[in-house]
Amino acid sequence: MIPMPAKRPPIPLSRERIIEAALHIADGQGLRRLTMRRLGDALQVEAMAIYHHLPRGKDALMDALAEHVTAVHAEPGDSWQETARAWCRASRAALREHPGVLALALTKQPKGRAATALREQTEQLAEAGLADAAEAVRALRAYVLGAVAVEVQQSGWAEAPDEGDEPWRPPSQGGGSPAADADFERGLDAMLAGLATR
């Protein structure tokens, strides 16, 4: 008799696994399709099991997803302009990687690691000599969010499919198209030049 292969133990549920599965649903099908039941199915657990890791349920999940795409880090450069440019590029890359939760990044107040990252960015720019670094960070953050929102909208990613159609496809991962990259850098140059004259 051929012995039956041993069953693999189930992968323990964790906050990280929940967020990863939620991002997969949001990026592939859109945020409106992300329900606790659908998330539970993707994780092969009862939806109530998710509440052990996110006691506030859907609200906590939305906060966690927003934090995931906005809590970026960048190493300081030789000047405040280089540091700011590194932050903006890192922020754009994180938002483009998960367009399904862009709406949360646009509407959720930064909390947790996201708020810590903003404070770090402000401190780095201030230490590099930029006057009123907090105001500059707010302006740069608004620019990046707006630029990515336009980029995603132009990609056609957010056009909702009819029932039975293929799931949504996110824009190309990593860097954008050459034209989108050039537009972003041109706008960033203008932002940095404006901040330098304040």
Structure description:
- By secondary structure, the protein is mainly alpha-helical.
- It has 9 helices and no strands.
- The chain has 2 domains: 15-66, Homeodomain-like (Arc Repressor Mutant, subunit A), CATH 1.10.10.60; 72-196, Tetracycline Repressor, domain 2 (Orthogonal Bundle).
- It has helices spanning 15-29, 36-43, 47-50, 58-70, 80-97, 102-107, 112-127, 133-155, 178-196.
- α5 (80-97) packs parallel to α8.
- The radius of gyration is 20 Å and the shape is elongated.
- The N and C termini lie far apart (81 Å).
In the predicted model, the low-confidence regions spanning at least 5 consecutive residues are 161-168
Radius of gyration: 20 Å
* Percent range for β-strand residues: under 5%
Overall body shape = elongated
CATH topology (fold) name of the largest domain: Tetracycline Repressor, domain 2
How many helices? The count is 9
Q: Say what oligomer this is.
A: single chain
Number of strands: 0
Region (Disordered): 158-183
DNA-binding region: 35-54
InterPro entries: Homeodomain-like_sf (IPR009057), HTH-type_TetR-like_transc_reg (IPR050109), HTH_TetR (IPR001647), Repressor_TetR_C (IPR004111), Tet_transcr_reg_TetR (IPR003012), Tet_transcr_reg_TetR-rel_C_sf (IPR036271)
Domain HTH tetR-type: 12-72
